[in-house]
């Protein structure tokens, strides 16, 4: 094999020495790619070159051969650097496979099911900016006319954030009730996160509980972007603000909760800051822009509204979301 | 995507000026600089954010971590010069209630 490569090299070199055309150079370029594929080190290429020149021009003075030996020595570290790069590429590839696996596990683990509730149409979209989603959405439903939903954003990204989310999920599962009140849910999760998470990782979370019979939403927030209420009869948007500290900052945090009764055509818009903190060349995309998008589609099914907002925001930001995007819309029908 | 952090400390009083954007890319720079001081006993820190034109939740995380450390060592952190946008971020997260924060337009919105 090596002999064959040496012969090929000698032939290509010889052609070039005779004619020096672009075509000869092109052949040489292609051959060098093949050498890289075959893992031939730079110093080996020079050895090959020296051997070929010796055969073709044996009458050259001694100094030329010495100079080649020196050059070979000079190239050895380049060869090592190349080897190192190749092993890094391989490691990177392995890491990528592991990340893909982890992302899959996350997806399976954190899967949630949209609840079916009388008189409520739900739209949902959660799209990670990178491989792992730092946003988390979880529905709790017992098919008894009640459903809870948690919309959370883990501050701190990547793998640690994903692990933190699993904790939230298990915390919610341990409560195991669609009747649970927001202030209780938030307190429980706060204590779990506070105990077990690193000092610079926090979670913001909006939790709401919906009673289908009375069309009543009870909500609380742990430092989360406020949800928005659209009142169909007034054609107006307002914030559903509830005081509460981020989860994981202080074990003593207490959470407010409020209620709002929904009427036909009303929308409750729950989201993460990936929706509201969008930026384009002109600056921030203001919340009013998002309200306008929603208003334009308010008569369509909740899922169409959610999809439309995403598509339009994506267009405004040239398809470059900086943060994970999660948007949930409840529509009273 | 750049940040400038100037910190000067004397007699356990830390004065800081932060300029630029604090996001996932620049937050590690800020975190590293603040970490040098956060374990000093009884540190009084005053950080001026009037030239911070953008901060996301990652940046918020850095300040909370710093606040928690300094507090647990008997010190105090004050953030000043917050723009309306930054102030809103601290208010929504409930941090405005537990941290010492001073916005630019005091009394206004």
Walkthrough of the structure:
The complex is a heterodimer of chains A (333) and B (109). Chain A is elongated, with a radius of gyration of 31 Å. In chain A, the strands form three sheets. In chain A, strands 1-12-9-6-7 form a five-stranded antiparallel sheet. In chain A, strands 2-3-4-5-8 form a five-stranded antiparallel sheet, covered by helices on one side. Chain A has a two-stranded antiparallel sheet with strand order 10-11. Chain A has two domains: 2-103, KaiA/RbsU domain (Methyltransferase, Methionine Synthase (B12-binding Domains), Chain A, domain 1, Orthogonal Bundle), CATH 1.10.1240.30; 113-332, Phosphatase 2c, domain 1 (4-Layer Sandwich), CATH 3.60.40.10. With 333 residues, chain A is an alpha+beta fold. In chain A, 48% of the residues lie in helices and 22% in strands. With 109 residues, chain B is an alpha/beta fold. Chain B has four helices and five strands; from the N terminus they run ββαβαβααβ. Chain B has a five-stranded mixed sheet with strand order 1-2-3-4-5. The radius of gyration of chain B is 13 Å and the shape is globular. The relative contact order of chain B is 0.17. The mean pLDDT of chain B is 88.
Could you please say which CATH topology of chain B applies here? Transcription Regulator spoIIAA
- The overall pLDDT average of chain B reads 88
The overall pLDDT average of chain A reads 89
CATH class of the largest domain in chain A: Alpha Beta
Main pleated-sheet profile of chain A: 5 strands, antiparallel
Instruction: State the share of residues found in helices of chain A, binned by percent.
Output: 40-55%
Count of separate DSSP helical elements of chain A: 9
Question: Looking across the biggest beta sheet of chain A, what order are the strands in?
Answer: 1-12-9-6-7
Instruction: Supply the helix-strand structural class of chain A.
Output: alpha+beta
- Give the fraction of residues assigned to helices of chain B: 25-40%
**Which percent band covers the strand fraction of chain A?**
15-25%
Q: What's the number of domains of chain B? A: 1
């Amino acid at each position: 094999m090596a002999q064959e490569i040496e012969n090929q090299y000698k032939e290509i070199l010889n052609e070039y020495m005779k004619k020096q055309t672009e075509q000869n150079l092109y052949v040489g370029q292609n051959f060098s790619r093949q050498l890289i594929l075959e893992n031939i080190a730079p110093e080996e290429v020079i050895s090959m070159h020296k051997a070929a020149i010796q055969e073709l021009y044996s009458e050259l003075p001694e100094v030329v051969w010495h100079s080649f030996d020196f050059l070979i020595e000079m190239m050895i570290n380049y060869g090592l650097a190349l080897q190192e790069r190749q092993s890094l590429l391989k490691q990177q590839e392995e890491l990528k496979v592991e990340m893909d696996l982890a992302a899959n596990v996350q997806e399976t683990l954190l899967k949630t099911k949209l609840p079916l509730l009388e008189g409520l149409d739900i739209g949902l979209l959660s799209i990670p900016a990178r491989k792992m989603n730092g946003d988390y959405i979880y529905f709790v439903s017992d098919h008894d006319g009640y459903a809870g939903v948690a919309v959370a954003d883990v501050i701190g990204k990547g793998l640690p954030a994903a692990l933190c989310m699993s904790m939230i999920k298990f915390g919610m599962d341990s409560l195991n009730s669609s009747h649970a009140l927001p202030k209780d849910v938030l307190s429980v999760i706060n204590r779990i996160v506070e105990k077990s998470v690193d000092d610079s990782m926090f979670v913001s979370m909006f939790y709401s509980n919906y009673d289908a019979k009375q069309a009543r939403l009870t909500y609380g927030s742990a430092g989360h972007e406020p949800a928005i209420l659209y009142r169909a009869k007034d054609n107006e948007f307002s914030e559903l603000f509830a005081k509460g500290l981020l989860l994981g900052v202080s074990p003593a945090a207490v959470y407010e909760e409020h209620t709002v009764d929904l009427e036909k055509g009303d929308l409750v818009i729950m989201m993460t800051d990936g929706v509201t903190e969008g930026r384009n060349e002109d600056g921030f995309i203001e919340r009013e822009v998002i309200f306008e998008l929603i208003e334009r589609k308010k008569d369509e099914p909740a899922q169409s509204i959610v999809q439309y907002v995403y598509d339009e925001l994506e267009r405004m930001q040239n398809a470059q979301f900086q943060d994970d995007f999660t948007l949930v819309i409840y529509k009273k029908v | 995507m750049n940040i400038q952090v100037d910190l000067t400390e004397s007699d356990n009083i830390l004065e800081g000026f932060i300029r630029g954007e604090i996001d996932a890319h620049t937050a590690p720079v800020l975190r590293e600089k603040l970490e040098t001081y956060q374990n000093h006993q009884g540190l009084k820190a005053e950080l001026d954010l009037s030239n911070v034109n953008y901060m996301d939740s990652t940046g918020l995380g850095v300040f909370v971590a710093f606040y928690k450390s300094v507090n647990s060592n008997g010190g105090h952190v004050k953030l000043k010069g917050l723009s309306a946008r930054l102030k809103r971020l601290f208010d929504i997260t409930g941090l405005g209630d537990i941290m010492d924060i001073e916005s630019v337009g005091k009394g206004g919105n």
